[in-house]
């Protein structure tokens, strides 16, 4: 048996490592838990080991009570009994499986006694008695209609449900022991509890024991331990981690005792699994990465998640993709094991298929899992996004370049950087302020010495339609005469400690309180803080940055909050930890939505996130380091976010910690020009590195990369629009674009920009002069800059000296762009478009362009232009309205006004690569307007020397 | 390349150098700053430079100007360079830029007049500074002359004094030595020495005890700090803690002299014993001192007959002097017994020699000073040591000409030295001069380099580049921390008016808008 295990932790951890003496970033190992130090993880792994060791003699103690099974309106409901043996009464676990359109299933398992609140909490804890049921309130926003075609067949042994497109999917629910197989194309695609590792630790009172248990352990989590010095319960179980657990100086009071949930999920014949960001490792969680269970550093190849969690996993094989979404906000560990099927021992592994077995373990909450059956990656992301929400359509400026530094020290400094960018003809849209702009880390204030005139600063930026982003964190300084903290205290809007008093901890400002965004009153109050009257010195071109929202607590266990802290509704912090960042981010988004009348699209960057965060802003990968390995890691990290439904993602260009070499900085800008979120950032102890300071040729090359980003903004904005309507990734890994090309399943260092056919392979190594790009079979690509053709079906080597970004165009695409360099994206609004067309072997190509005002919500009233471009048979380029059904351009007032305003904006130039030779010598082309009106001949020129390039003048 | 007239300014870029579109932004992308693209420049590789510096604004009523092509028809009125608003002739998105040349021009002329006035005043001020500097260097030159004369005088005087001392010494050595007075000076000395040594010994014991206590306290403190460094939470980012840790690391990294070692302690133990215990000195022996053998040798003439004593005495004296002069015989010195006359003479010589040394040193300094670079016309001689200040953010910054730059926190605490003056430099700047004229403008500027200021944690020693531009009054316009602990001051001073950065010729007054 060939197997390897990857263990992934889904507890967003915070990584603040200032005061670093060595250049290497090193997390203090002792600050973070290993699975062994996390009781529930240890117990479930031990349980899994016990199950594995027992082999075929193991029987899962969970069975469905057949007479409770009901099939109705897309739901299969029933009760699962957890047998405890020894004549003890079984535990009742309500089961619900909801079959939704289009072919999505949701399995939910709760605990009856706790639903009823029929338990007692220790230490007189005021915490809620139920398992946390409100993850979906924060995460799910959309589609949940029952599949009308769903049919179920019940028998004593099993319930078989057919559902999905043409009722082609099947769910086989076995009653004893409980397991579910999901079948598509007559093949089992996903198995739940196939290995019997399902576990739900039911509530039990703490028994102060006298006697030593002598009976054999039979219950699910009752693992027979060597009766050494462990404290053993009445059934001989290791109770040492059931009640109080200590880590560092913190003791978790665990008023509810053990309550973990776990499930084994097997993907038969699937060798590749992707997803579950964010961690700093390769995109494909592969066999080649060996077991790595407790190395806790933001080091490369670490399975540890960092600041956020999206528990969406894909399994992929040739022509088939399936996925699961584990909707649970508690600390979660995922073990991944690859196992060669051993059906034919004589084949010696040749041709043997590999199964991927996963084991999902959460500290508490429900078992609540969505099952997606594909069959293509895009179906999964589309269905996932239809539930958790598409990424917001961002303001156009926010996909331009962001210039950040901890810190621009004065308002004059900001203005100076702004002037210098202008004078050096370097485009940018946003300049950022980190925590130092505040008066003593009191948010919603300005340091009067360093920022005496914030409005003047914003006015200057606005002159070239540039924006300012200021940081606001969730910790509120505990200081007298600070109205914000006074309101938080007097209205009781903060997170509470286990004794239900306001929780006080340490963060940037020192002693602080934390806003509890689970509290509707707190969110309402938060809204009021962002008005222009309240947050003095802010103008309409100021936007927001939410950091430290994991939440980061310097003196807390694992640099976050004690798990027995209490939130609104008396939910424990352990119930909601992974959601905390989302609620804060969401509150800021809502506040910004209310700031302007009429509302403009907010822009809020977050560090912590969960499924659903994509609806309200952008994320970045946190505090990386100025090293080649971090540049390299940024690509799979961002791709991972993109396939997990949160495409507006980026990494700090240049690396946050340390000083990048000029070459590294240049390469990072070239890569960053293809991050969906493109921001340069630097730590306070690093040297200044604004692009104009680096010196030529670097400044020139960096400016080229920035201008390339701006040139392609129409394509980027169109990609964001697609993401906002379908959930599709903005940057896409190879397997996503070519799901049948097995040779490319492991690729995570080259990627596509949405549907444009642009293929990027950023240079991430020092001193490179060429890169190797893998191209799929039977395809043709052209170099973006030189139009040199490359033929697919293997690896090609393309030149990549420092001034060259390896960027190819797949034949058959039409790429919209704007070639005129401007100071900011806002100033490009009225510029004409260029269409860059690469014809395929049949002389065909297609593409699309979406435009709106880039800032308001008028697009919802039809104020947008969405065109489809097709080039057919080497003869005719056609531009037509995009009729996708979702958003056909409206005929309302706003739509008309917008159309009128944009009437002067057209296409100035069409460049056709691989143009037919017969065009040679032609001097004009015919241009017609809609309705057939002829506009006469336009100049055109043809150059065979450039591999068939035609260029057509202004329309 | 030939184009039809209709192709000029048709908002479509035809010429590889953009010369067909002087009035639009259509060729703005033709620049080495743009991504290279074959399809972009008309079938030419890009990286060509534009034929024109920008869009020409007539600015009737004011002076003409160029706006970069990339600012043409972008919806922003670039009044700085284009007061007539002609850069937005296409009125994209309804942009309207009215002609403001009248008021801008009027304002400009007003300011220009002011600037010219100011410039005249600045030139005058510079002349004053130069005159002042000349005066100061004249003073130095004069002083050098005086010093040289004084030195000559010193030398002559010293020669005379040296002769005098030599004569006196001769006489002194030849003098008949009198019987030592009773009960013997040596005895008294021994008594005094004994007391003194006893006192020293006691102090030594005390000091040593104090040292040991301090050593223990130091070890304890170092222990506390080293634990502190291990255990503090870097996440807190408390400035005070950070500074303390930094200080400790600097301290720990320094070579520390070892405080006491066993060998030294053994020596100290030995030294600290009383003389009676150690048996090193038997004071009683010394308190009743007899003449030594050498004294007898020196004094043997006393035992000769009177008649020949005089002659022999003279011969011996000469011989002894010869021997002494040739280093064969040690000088017989009993400082106590040296005559006041000789002592005075020696003192006089010493003070004359010191005076010579002092004058020589001063001469060197002044010569060095005179040879030092004080910029063109030595104008900075007039400013050296004077200081100007400016508040910026939470600090007050201070520039002292040709000496130091400093930073003072308004929140209290001491000065931080941002560098000591090293040299004159030339710095190329490219800035827009604001309306008040307080800006560097563009071109090469004289700068003062200050280096080796206070060390920055995790960074270099602080340094400052002080970039100068012509202004009527000496004023610190702007301070920026260009990167960690590398500062740049922009300073106006009349000292650089009318000179170029090489320190010669005439610098034209900046006439940018």
Helix content of chain B: 40-55%
* Portion in strands of chain B: 5-15%
- Strand tally of chain B is 10
Using the coordinates above, name the CATH class of one domain in chain B.
Answer: Mainly Beta
Structure annotation, total helices of chain B: 9
Spans of chain B of at least 5 consecutive residues whose pLDDT stays below 50 are 41-46, 504-513
Using DSSP, what is the number of strands of chain A?
53
- Full CATH superfamily name of the largest domain in chain A: Glycosidases
SS class of chain A:
alpha+beta
- Count of helical stretches of chain A: 16
Q: Can you give the helix content of chain A as a percent range? A: 10-25%
Mean pLDDT of chain B: 82
Mean pLDDT of chain A: 88
What is the CATH superfamily classification of one domain in chain B? Mannose-6-phosphate receptor binding domain
Count of folded domains of chain A: 3
The global form of chain B is elongated
Describe this structure in words.
The complex is a heterodimer of chains A (955) and B (513). In chain A, 17% of the residues lie in helices and 27% in strands. In chain A, strands 1, 7, 8, 9, 10, 11, 12, 15, 20 and 21 form a 10-stranded antiparallel beta sheet that branches. In chain A, strands 2, 3, 4, 5, 6, 16, 17, 18, 19 and 22 form a 10-stranded antiparallel beta sheet that branches. Chain A has a 9-stranded parallel beta sheet with strand order 34-33-32-29-25-24-23-36-35. Chain A has 16 helices and 53 strands. The model of chain A is unreliable at 1-5, 13-26, 211-235 and 286-297 (pLDDT under 50). In chain A, β10 and β11 form a beta hairpin. The longest helix of chain A has 16 residues, at 39-54. In chain A, α5 (411-423) runs parallel beside α6 (454-463). With 955 residues, chain A is of the alpha+beta class. Chain A is globular and about 95 Å long. Chain A folds into 3 domains: 62-203 and 258-276 and 311-343 and 351-388, glycosyl hydrolase (family 31) (Immunoglobulin-like, Sandwich); 396-711, Alpha-Beta Barrel (TIM Barrel); 813-951, Immunoglobulin-like (Sandwich), CATH 2.60.40.1180. In chain B, the strands form 2 sheets. An 8-stranded mixed beta sheet of chain B has the order 3-4-5-6-7-8-10-9, with no helix packed on it. In chain B, strands 1-2 form a two-stranded antiparallel sheet. Residues 41-46 and 504-513 of chain B have low confidence and may be disordered. Among the domains of chain B are: 185-289; 376-496, Cation-dependent Mannose-6-phosphate Receptor, Chain A, CATH 2.70.130. In chain B, α1 (101-174) packs antiparallel against α9. Helices cover 42% and strands 15% of the residues of chain B. Chain B is elongated and about 135 Å long. Chain B is α+β, with helices and mostly antiparallel strands and 513 residues long. The interface between A and B is large, with 72 and 54 residues.
């Amino acid at each position: 048996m060939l197997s390897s295990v990857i263990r992934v932790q889904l507890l967003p951890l915070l990584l603040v490592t200032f005061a670093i003496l060595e250049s290497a970033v090193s997390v203090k190992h002792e600050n973070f838990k290993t699975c062994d130090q996390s009781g529930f993880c240890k117990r479930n792994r031990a349980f899994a080991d016990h199950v594995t060791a027992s082999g075929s003699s193991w029987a899962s103690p969970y069975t469905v009570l057949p007479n409770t099974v009901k099939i109705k309106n897309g739901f299969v409901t029933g009760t699962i009994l957890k047998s405890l043996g020894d004549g003890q009464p079984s535990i009742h676990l309500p089961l619900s499986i909801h079959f939704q359109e289009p072919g999505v299933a949701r399995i939910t398992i709760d605990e009856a006694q706790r639903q009823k609140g029929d338990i007692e909490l220790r230490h007189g804890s005021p915490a809620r008695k139920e398992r946390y049921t409100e993850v979906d309130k924060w995460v799910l926003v959309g589609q949940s209609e029952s599949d009308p075609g769903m049919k179920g067949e019940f028998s004593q042994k099993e319930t078989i449900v057919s559902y999905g497109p043409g009722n082609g999917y099947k769910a086989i629910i076995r009653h004893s022991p409980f397991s579910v197989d999901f079948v598509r194309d007559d093949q089992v695609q996903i198995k739940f509890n196939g290995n019997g590792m399902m576990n739900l630790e039911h509530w039990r009172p703490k028994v102060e024991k006298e006697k030593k248990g002598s009976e054999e352990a039979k219950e699910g989590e009752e693992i027979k331990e060597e009766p050494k010095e462990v404290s053993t319960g009445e059934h001989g179980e290791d109770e040492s981690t059931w009640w109080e657990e200590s880590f560092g100086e913190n003791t978790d009071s665990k008023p509810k005792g053990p309550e973990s949930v776990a499930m084994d999920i097997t993907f038969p014949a699937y060798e590749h699994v992707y997803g579950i960001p964010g961690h700093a490792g390769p995109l494909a969680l592969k066999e080649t990465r060996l077991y790595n269970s407790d190395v806790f550093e933001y080091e490369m190849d670490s399975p540890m998640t960092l600041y956020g969690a999206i528990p969406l996993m894909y399994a992929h094989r040739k022509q088939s993709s399936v996925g699961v979404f584990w909707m649970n906000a508690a600390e979660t560990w995922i073990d991944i094991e690859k196992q060669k099927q051993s059906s034919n021992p004589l084949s010696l592994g040749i041709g043997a298929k590999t199964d991927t077995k996963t084991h999902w373990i959460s500290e508490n909450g429900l078992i609540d899992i969505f099952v997606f059956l594909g069959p293509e990656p895009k179906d999964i992301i589309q269905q996932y996004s239809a539930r958790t929400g598409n990424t917001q359509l961002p303001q156009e400026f926010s996909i331009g370049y962001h210039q950040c530094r901890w810190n621009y020290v004065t308002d004059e400094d900001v203005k100076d950087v702004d002037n210098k960018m202008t004078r050096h003809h370097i485009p940018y849209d946003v300049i950022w302020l980190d925590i130092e702009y505040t008066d003593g880390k009191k948010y919603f204030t300005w340091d009067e010495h360093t920022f005496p005139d914030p409005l003047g600063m914003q006015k200057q930026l606005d002159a070239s339609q540039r924006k300012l982003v200021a940081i606001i964190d969730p910790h509120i300084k505990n200081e007298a005469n600070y109205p914000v903290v006074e309101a938080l205290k007097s209205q009781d809007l903060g997170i509470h400690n286990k004794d239900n008093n306001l929780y006080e901890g340490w963060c940037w400002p020192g002693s602080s309180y934390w806003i509890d965004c689970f509290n509707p009153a707190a969110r309402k109050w938060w809204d009021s803080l962002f008005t222009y009257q309240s947050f003095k010195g802010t103008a309409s071109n100021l936007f927001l940055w939410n950091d430290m929202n994991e939440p980061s607590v310097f003196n807390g266990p694992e640099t976050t909050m004690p798990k027995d802290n209490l939130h609104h509704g008396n939910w424990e912090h352990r119930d909601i930890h992974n959601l905390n960042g989302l609620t804060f981010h969401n509150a800021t988004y809502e506040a910004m939505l209310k700031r302007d009348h009429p509302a403009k699209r907010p822009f809020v960057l977050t560090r912590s996130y969960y499924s659903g965060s994509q609806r309200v802003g952008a994320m970045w990968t946190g505090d990386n380091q100025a090293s080649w390995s971090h540049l390299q890691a940024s690509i799979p990290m961002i791709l991972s976010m993109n396939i997990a439904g949160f495409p507006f993602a980026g990494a700090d260009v240049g690396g946050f910690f340390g000083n990048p070499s000029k070459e590294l900085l240049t390469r990072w800008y070239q890569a960053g020009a293809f991050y969906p979120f493109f921001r340069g950032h630097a730590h306070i102890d690093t040297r200044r590195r604004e692009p104009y300071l680096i010196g030529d040729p670097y400044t020139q090359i960096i400016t080229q990369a920035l201008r390339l980003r701006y040139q392609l903004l129409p394509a980027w904005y169109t990609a964001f629009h697609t993401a906002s309507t379908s959930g599709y990734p903005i940057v896409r890994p190879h397997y996503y674009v070519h799901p049948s090309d097995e040779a490319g399943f492991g690729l995570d260092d080259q990627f596509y920009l949405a549907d444009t056919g642009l293929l990027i392979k950023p240079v991430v190594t020092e001193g490179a002069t060429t890169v190797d790009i893998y191209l799929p079979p039977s395809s043709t690509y052209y170099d973006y800059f030189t139009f040199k053709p490359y033929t697919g079906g293997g690896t090609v080597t393309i030149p990549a000296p420092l001034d060259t970004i390896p960027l190819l165009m797949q034949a058959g695409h039409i790429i919209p762009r704007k070639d005129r360099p401007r100071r900011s994206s806002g100033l490009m609004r009225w510029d004409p478009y260029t269409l860059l067309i690469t014809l395929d072997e049949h002389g065909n190509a297609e593409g699309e362009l979406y435009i709106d005002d880039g800032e308001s919500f008028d697009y919802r009233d039809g104020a947008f232009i969405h065109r489809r471009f097709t080039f057919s048979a080497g003869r005719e380029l056609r531009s037509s309205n995009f009729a996708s059904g979702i958003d056909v351009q409206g005929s309302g007032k706003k739509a008309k006004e917008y159309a009128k305003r944009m009437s002067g904006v057209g296409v100035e130039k069409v460049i056709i690569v691989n143009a037919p030779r017969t065009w040679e010598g032609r001097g004009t082309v015919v241009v017609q307007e809609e309705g057939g009106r002829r506009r006469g001949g336009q100049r055109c020129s043809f150059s065979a020397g450039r591999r068939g390039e035609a260029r057509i003048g202004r329309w | 390349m030939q184009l039809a007239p209709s192709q000029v300014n048709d908002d479509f870029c035809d010429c590889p150098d953009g010369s067909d579109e002087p009035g639009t932004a259509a060729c703005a992308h033709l620049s080495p700053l743009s991504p290279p693209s074959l399809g972009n420049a008309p079938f030419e590789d890009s990286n060509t430079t534009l034929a024109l510096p920008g869009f020409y604004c007539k600015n009737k009523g004011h002076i003409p100007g160029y706006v970069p092509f990339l600012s043409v028809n972008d919806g922003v009125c670039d009044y700085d360079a284009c007061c007539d608003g002609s850069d937005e002739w296409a009125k994209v998105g309804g942009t309207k830029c009215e002609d403001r040349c009248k008021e801008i021009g009027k304002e400009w002329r007003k300011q220009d007049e002011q600037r010219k006035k100011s410039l005249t005043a600045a030139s005058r001020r510079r002349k004053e500074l130069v005159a002042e500097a000349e005066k100061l260097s004249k003073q130095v030159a004069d002083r050098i002359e005086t010093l040289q004369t004084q030195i000559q005088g010193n030398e002559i005087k010293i020669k005379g004094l040296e002769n005098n001392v030599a004569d006196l010494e001769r006489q002194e050595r030849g003098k008949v030595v009198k019987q030592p007075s009773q009960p013997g000076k040596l005895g008294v000395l021994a008594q005094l020495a004994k007391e003194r040594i006893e006192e020293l010994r006691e102090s030594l014991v005390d000091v040593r005890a104090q040292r040991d206590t301090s050593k223990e306290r130091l070890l304890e403190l170092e222990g506390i700090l080293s634990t502190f460094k291990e255990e503090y939470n870097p996440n807190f980012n408390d400035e005070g803690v950070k500074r303390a840790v930094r200080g400790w690391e600097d301290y720990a990294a320094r070579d520390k002299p070892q405080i006491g070692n066993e060998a030294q302690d053994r020596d100290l133990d030995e030294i600290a014993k009383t003389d009676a215990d150690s048996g090193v000195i038997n004071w009683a022996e010394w308190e009743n001192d007899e003449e030594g053998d050498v004294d007898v040798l020196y004094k043997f003439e006393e035992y000769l007959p009177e008649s020949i004593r005089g002659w022999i005495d003279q011969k011996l004296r000469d011989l002894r002097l010869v021997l002494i002069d040739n280093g064969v015989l040690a000088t017989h010195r009993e400082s106590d017994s040296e005559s006041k006359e000789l002592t005075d003479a020696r003192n006089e010589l010493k003070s004359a020699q010191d005076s010579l040394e002092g004058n020589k040193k001063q001469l060197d300094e002044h010569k060095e000073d005179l040879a030092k670079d004080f910029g063109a016309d030595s104008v900075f001689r007039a400013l050296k040591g004077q200081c100007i200040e400016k508040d910026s953010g939470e600090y007050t910054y201070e520039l002292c000409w040709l000496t130091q730059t400093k930073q003072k926190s308004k929140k209290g605490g001491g000065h931080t030295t941002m560098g000591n003056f090293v040299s004159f430099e030339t710095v190329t700047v490219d800035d827009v001069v604001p309306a008040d004229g307080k800006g560097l403008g563009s071109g090469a500027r004289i700068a003062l380099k200050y280096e080796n200021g206070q060390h920055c944690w995790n960074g270099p020693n602080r340094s400052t580049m002080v970039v100068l531009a012509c202004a009527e009054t000496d004023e610190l316009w702007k301070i920026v921390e260009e990167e960690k602990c590398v500062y740049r001051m922009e300073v106006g001073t009349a000292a650089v008016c009318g000179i170029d950065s090489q320190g010669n010729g005439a610098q034209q007054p900046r006439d940018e808008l």
